[in-house]
Design brief:
Blueprint: H1 2-21, E1 28-29, H2 43-57, E2 59-66, H3 69-84, E3 89-92, H4 99-106, H5 116-124, H6 127-138, H7 156-172, E4 178-180, H8 188-193, E5 196-205, H9 212-233, E6 236-240, H10 242-276, H11 280-304, E7 307-308, H12 309-316, H13 319-337, H14 343-375, H15 380-407, H16 415-426, H17 434-451, H18 469-482, E8 485-495, H19 498-513, E9 523-524, H20 533-542, H21 544-547, H22 552-559, H23 568-575, H24 584-590, E10 599-601, H25 603-612, H26 618-621, E11 626-633, H27 638-646, E12 651-655, H28 656-690, H29 697-716, H30 722-745, H31 749-769, H32 775-808
Parallel strand pairs: 1-7
Antiparallel strand pairs: 2-5, 2-6, 3-5, 4-5, 8-11, 8-12, 9-11, 10-11
GO cellular component, one term: plasma membrane
Pfam families: MMPL
Main location: membrane
């Protein structure tokens, strides 16, 4: 007992210290990433995918639709201005790129960069002719060069950067005008007149995301701006982005938390008042709930740096389980104390308390096993729920064990009311004589064997969250208007070095050109903005005619009457720049806010991780850590692409939806196998604890409940998913709880009363979770509600069997 009290105090101190230090710094995560399963990719590619996904998740697109271009331009400019005033948003446009920053960043690579026209001209002309051409450019009335004379006396670098920026602007500029024909049967002239014009504005959320309040405020500001401009210009404004889905999910989750926790607490309050007819029994249960939830919140936030709102939704349903410990404690302490203050009664109390603590501990262990199984899922959401729930249950259990003796001395169960309700519930169960029970168990096991292979399954990740129809419709409309590329589909090319990856990318494009159904222009790679390293080296050698001794730059300075030694600075810079190859990584870093991380390298980080894990030859193992993500245009022949990728070991065609389905299917199968292992381990635990084969009957309680549940769902045609299987672990844990109390205490009606009341509170919480607007929580809650209803029936039959057996003996 000293150990439990010490642990209880430590947990209380930790919780208080956490909330004291974290005051005002608590973060509630609302992202949908935790509901996305890891794809079956190697670690480096998965890391790259995570970075790309995080970057894309911060994108928000606005599409303005108007009947004429003048109206469209005015509305677009006004919307861009209003959005730029919102602190959490950055409006992106190629116009907003800092020309000076781009030129300054790329200037050192200029000796390796040439336009195609410049390459041809330098090869064909003499140094003297090149100098004359440069002299003519200086006096030509054209746009000012992008680089100063000192940096680009011959004008070739300004030409390259001008062409380069035009290409990037064309690729990056999202605010393009699109035509969309109105549904009219008039003639061509009238149809042209009715064409609707669209413009796209791309924005990006600040890094680190926003808290729940910040999200709601931003959404309110966006709604206000949209309404104002719609009224002012009579336009259509569509929007797209993960942000809107996340806010919708957070809003639904917040409502669920309020609904589940409020109704659960009220329901538990009424059950306890009806059972004990006093407010005193409310103290311990509500303290255990408060301590359990606070400790779970503190540990989860401490480990992950934030707490996901879905975790809180599941945590709200813990109320019905946490309360079980107090209910069993009160019922059995009340029974032990009812004999009066004699020494025999004192012995009875002490013996009863020992048995009760033993049952409570074993009950906790089996519940923890059920929740710990969630941690083996690859979904971060379930892992966090497992941590939260295990911590909450443990702390609630400690609260009851350490504080129960101070609150149970004045508590007496109202057996008359509870017995009346229990008797009504048990009347239909009277038909389950020992012989009927055996027949029922045999039939259930046979039905389970017949149905287990016929169970329908569903592994679609889109099931996890059902978005608001209006948000989904806007998302689809924006995708059709503004996006030329398939969402969630990529070609990922892997290499051991940047140069090798560029070469492999070129090989992929060569293969695409040789595959008739595929079109090279349908694949957008960052490498298309740059010459290959080989071409850059050739460009460097070509420019020797410009910056070598007695070459074009010297000739130009002579024509201009400038001292020849003035050219020494740029000639020296050229000579020292031989190894300065411009790689895609530099471009990605330069355009990091506008361009997603399509070029990825994590060589050093992976090597360090392998070293920390004790791998030998980590450099060799960590070499394959360069990735190039290639975007795929809509309308691509994906079957042909997949066949092509299968012939190229360095190419991986990623379809995130299909990959997620496969990942979830594999997890569902492995979770089912793990469930069988859990049953076996718990059976061994029971056998080692009681040393009797008859004690294994305890396991029949959750086993029969699970069998009945699977058969019922199969008859109803319900498709099983990963969350259903994970819920079966909790059906196992709760069924073991009831079975253990029935076997350990064996005091007839009192045990049945405690099981009945505790099951009612659990069913209340899970039933409310089953009403959640989030499909994940809904399916989880419904399976637990039905499964635990079967647990209640099976445990009452088992408790009655034990009571009759005790009377017989």
């Amino acid at each position: 007992m000293i150990v439990w009290r010490s642990l209880f105090v430590i947990c209380i101190v930790f919780t208080l210290a956490f909330f004291f230090q974290s005051s005002g710094k608590l973060v509630v995560d609302t992202s949908l990433g935790d509901l996305s399963p890891d794809l079956e990719l190697d670690q480096s590619t998965q890391d790259a995918m995570d970075g790309l996904t995080e970057n894309i998740s911060r994108n928000i697109l606005f599409v303005v639709g108007a009947d004429d271009k003048q109206q469209l331009d005015a509305a677009k400019a006004d919307l861009s201005k209003r959005l730029s005033e919102l602190k959490p948003l950055t409006v992106l446009s190629s116009d907003a790129l800092s020309l000076t920053d781009i030129i300054d960043s790329l200037a050192k690579y200029r000796f390796h960069l040439l336009t195609v026209a410049a390459q041809k001209n330098i090869k064909q002309e003499s140094a003297e002719e090149l100098a004359k051409q440069a002299q003519a450019k200086l006096f030509r009335l054209t746009n000012a060069p992008l680089m100063s004379f000192e940096k680009d006396p011959l004008g070739v670098h300004s030409e390259y950067f001008n062409e380069f920026l035009q290409k990037i602007s064309a690729d990056l500029e999202q605010a393009q005008t699109h035509g969309s024909e109105a549904s009219s049967s008039d003639d061509a002239g009238q149809n042209k007149k009715n064409k609707k014009q669209y413009a796209v504005i791309q924005t990006k959320l600040q890094k680190g995301g926003l808290g729940l309040d910040g999200q709601n405020q931003l959404l309110a500001d966006i709604n206000t701006i949209s309404k104002d401009l719609k009224d002012k210009y009579k336009i259509e404004i569509l929007r797209s982005g993960v942000f809107f889905f996340a806010v919708d999910a957070a809003s639904k989750s917040k409502k669920d938390i309020s609904f589940i926790s409020t109704i659960s607490m009220v329901g538990v309050l009424l059950v306890l008042l009806l059972t004990f007819r006093s407010v005193v029994p409310l103290i311990l249960p509500f303290l255990s709930i408060a301590f359990g939830v606070a400790f779970a919140f503190a540990v989860s936030h401490f480990i992950y740096g934030k707490i996901h709102i879905l975790t809180i939704v599941f945590g709200a349903s813990l109320i019905g389980i946490v309360i079980d410990y107090s209910i069993h404690y009160f019922f059995h302490q009340s029974q032990a104390l009812s004999n009066g203050p004699s020494s025999v009664a004192e012995d009875s109390v002490e013996h009863s308390q020992s048995r009760l603590h033993s049952a409570l501990l074993l009950s906790l262990v089996t519940s923890l096993l059920g929740y710990l199984a969630l941690y083996f899922s690859q979904l971060d959401a379930l892992k966090k729920v497992a941590v939260f729930s295990c911590c909450g249950l443990t702390m609630a259990w400690l609260s009851v064990i350490c504080l129960g003796q101070y609150s149970s001395k004045r508590i007496k169960a109202n057996n008359t009311v509870v017995n009346t309700i229990l008797d009504i519930f048990k009347r239909p169960l009277a038909v389950f004589s020992p012989r009927v029970v055996v027949i029922t168990i045999v039939l259930l096991m046979l039905s389970l064997a017949l149905n287990i292979f016929a169970v329908k399954t569903s592994d679609d990740p889109r099931f996890f969250f059902t978005p608001d129809p209006e948000i989904l419709a806007s998302e689809v409309a924006v995708s059709q208007i503004a996006s030329d590329y398939e969402p969630g589909r990529f070609v990922v090319i892997s290499g051991q070095s940047s140069e090798e990856l560029i070469g492999l990318t070129e090989s992929f494009y060569d293969k695409v050109k040789a595959t008739p159904p595929l079109i090279a222009d349908n694949f957008k790679s960052i490498t298309q903005w740059l010459p290959t390293p080989q071409q850059q080296r050739e460009n460097y050698q070509i420019q020797g005619k410009l910056y070598g001794d007695n070459q074009a730059v010297d000739a130009l300075y002579s024509l201009l009457g400038v001292e020849k030694n003035k050219a020494e600075a740029i000639k020296t810079e050229y000579a020292n720049s031989e190894k300065l190859i411009l790689e895609p990584q530099q471009l990605n870093e330069l355009f990091n806010e506008i361009l997603p991380p399509l070029w990825y390298t994590k060589k050093q980080q992976v090597e360090q991780r392998l070293v920390e894990q004790g791998h030998k030859n980590s450099k060799a193992e960590a070499g394959d850590n360069f990735r190039n993500f290639i975007l795929i245009a809509k309308g691509t022949d994906f079957e042909a692409l997949e066949k092509l990728s299968n012939t190229m070991p360095f190419v991986n065609y990623v379809n995130t939806v299909e990959s997620a389905k496969k990942s979830l299917a594999d997890q569902r199968v492995s979770a089912t196998q793990l469930l069988l292992v859990a049953y076996a381990l718990i059976a061994l635990l029971i056998l080692s604890r009681y040393r009797k084969l008859s004690a294994l009957n305890i396991v029949l309680v959750p086993l029969c409940a699970t069998a009945a549940l699977i058969v019922l769902l199969n008859v109803l045609g319900v498709s099983f998913n990963l969350f259903h299987v994970m819920a079966l672990f909790l059906v196992l844990g709760l069924g073991m709880d009831y079975g253990i109390f029935a076997y350990e205490l064996q005091d007839g009606n009192v045990t049945q009363q405690a099981i009945f009341i505790s099951a009612i509170t659990s069913l209340l919480s899970f039933g409310l979770l089953g009403l959640s607007a989030i499909p994940v929580a809904q399916s989880f809650g419904m399976i637990l509600f039905i499964g635990n209803s079967f647990n209640l029936i099976a445990s009452l039959i088992y408790a009655e069997f034990l009571a009759n057996k005790a009377i017989t003996h």
